[in-house]
Amino acid sequence: MRSRPSNSEPEHRRTVPPPVAAPAEDENWSLIVRRCLDGDSHAWAELVRAHHRRIYCICYRFTGSPQDAEDLTQEVFLRIYGNLASFDLVRGSFKTWATTLTRNLLVDHFRRTKQQRVTDSIDAGWDGVDELPVSDRIADNRPSPHDRAAGRELQKMVQQALAKVSPELREAVILRDLQDMDYKEIAQVLRIPEGTVKSRISRGRAELARLLEKNRGQVV
Amino acid sequence: MLADALDGTLPATDSVAFESHGRNCVACGEILKHAREGREWLAFLHEEPEVPSDLQARILARTTGLGRPVAMGIPAPMHPAPVMHLGAFANQRAYLNARLLMTAAMAFFSIGITLNLAGVKLTQLRLADLRPSSMQANLSRQFYGTKGQIVRYYDNLRVIYEVEARVRELRRDSEATPQSEPAPKQEKANPDGRARKNGSRMHTPEGALAGPPVLARKDQETKPSWWSASAAALAICKIGAIKGGLL
């Protein structure tokens, strides 16, 4: 029976790119932005191609909804497109700047949809129509705990729990644990001190674990 | 310190002290346990979610209007790249905004009406008409012309009302003379002034409150008979003058 992941790092964890962008890469993006401003549509296409997956990933992990993530990603790029002239490499890398715009948009979206979420039941998010019952997901009868299907189910469960973590903790956790940004970059994006960033990340992780433990306790 | 401990970036001495404290302190031990577990749970989300295949094309379509996906390794087209002016998209959206179009239409009509009221005809506009002195003279002419028309209109109305009042007066005079005679007969038919069926109702003698107007009687007494004829003639002359446009 597998109730939580093993302490060892998963295999795909090692394939994540290094957290901090090299200065040369920042310079490169700065040049591409300049080309965009000069009217080069291919530079803009290159910029969209390189960043749209990362932006979509942040939006999806924050909202938990593919439709919302898609709409928000498009909105983010519209905002980037409209404000590209205000990008300044001295104030931070393009990645940090784009992430800041994404985060601001996510906060706006969170405030807009607050009333809608209040009406939802606390446990409504766990009742997936095409999913297995939670007891089946937790008490995994399949031979290997590392089975791919079980991994997908657990992934859904964790994603749903993450969507319930308070937003200021959730954004810090996503940027650190899922986007592998360093504390300095996160502090720039969230405009808070590094110490607060670390505190929020720890609290966010703990809240997520408590939510998952509570849910498991209710079912089992 | 907790985040650094989980990252493994704490110095060796601090790490030992931290672990020791975590084992002895219940509250801190609980937080450390949950934070570690939460980090492990999050490892399940490291896999990138499936991105819609047409997302990139849709972003490009919404921004530059090109809408064709640019994949890695595909060479650039031979023809020169279309020049994209950043901000042009926002401008295009703004101009296409229905609200702006309505505002522009309202401004156009307002200017048109103002020019029309000021007597400015764009087809007959000359450069000399745009001089301040010409514009002032034109406006003064328009103003006094309009004022004159209004004054004439109300003068004509006054004359018409006077004539109508006089005609009514004459008609009343002519009707009052035969009606004043049968009053004693009515008085004779009901001399006590009471109602026949309902004794509680009080009736005044006919002619005490109603009857020919006092002024008419006075006029009849003071003015000679030829006066009525001359007044009617005067009224007819005035009406004729109004119709002829003399007044």
From TrEMBL, chain A:
Keyword Transcription regulation on entry: yes
Assigned keywords, A-Z: DNA-binding, Sigma factor, Transcription, Transcription regulation
CDD domains membership: Sigma70_r4
Domain RNA polymerase sigma factor 70 region 4 type: 157-208
The keyword Magnesium is assigned to this record: no
A GO MF label: DNA binding
Annotated ranges, domain RNA polymerase sigma-70 region: 47-114
GO biological process, one term: DNA-templated transcription initiation
Ranges where the record places region Disordered: 1-22
One Pfam family cited in the UniProt record for this chain: Sigma70_r2
Similarity-based family: Belongs to the sigma-70 factor family. ECF subfamily.
Entry protein name: RNA polymerase sigma-70 factor (ECF subfamily)
Organism: Acidipila rosea
